[in-house]
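Table S2 (continued). Query chain:
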Amino acid sequence: MPSFMTIFRKYFPTWNETRNKPAAFTPDTHAATHQNGGPDEISVAALSGTLADEQNAGLIKGVILNDAAKADQKILAYDSGTDRIIYITPAPSGAAINSVQRFDETFSAETIRDVTIDEVDPTKTMLMYNGYIPAGTGDKHNAIAISLLNATTVRLYKYDASGNTRVGFTVVEFASGINNIQRLTTTMSSQSLLDVTITAVDLSKAFVNWLTFRSNDSTSGLNGPLVNLLNSTTLRMQRDWTGPNVYVSWEVVEFV
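Corresponding output:
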């Protein structure tokens, strides 16, 4: 009787014992069966991790990305005319106002008056001088200057403690758009011209906000200076005579 191994080798020969086998094997190509639409399509939806290759790299949520105008500082936006996502240059954001506070104050028997305001960010806040109603015909009662003292206080100044002068002003706080605000009350003594050094600003985006002045005599109406930006680092004050001291309140506001 043949042994078990003899019978096994008869029906299950080794590779070398196999007859009529080809010299080489060319495997059937089947990659297409695993691709999109193939009968054995492979899905990566349930796989974790990061894919080696980008998937649908030219689409954003199914919309074709047109990168022809791709460049530094540009942003992506949807263009309904072409049904494409394209690169555009962002428009300037401009300035946005956060809050506006308005005041009509009576300045009576005092030379300095502090007005409490709702808290603001001084780096983004400017004042607007809205005029005055003098107590009488004497110019000295008209000499009122205003300044933002701190985040919750506007300070008013005048020549003496007589009269009841009304002064109006507005506090404007910006939410965005302000690059820098510089403010000071500058003393002009016996000078007809005074240059004040400031931190450099872009003259195409900056302006002087003149918040008036007060004097130390009764003829302050003759002493008021003209205030301008001479250049990017200089504020120039000029008046027509070298009379008594005047105290000039100003802001230099620079937008982004």
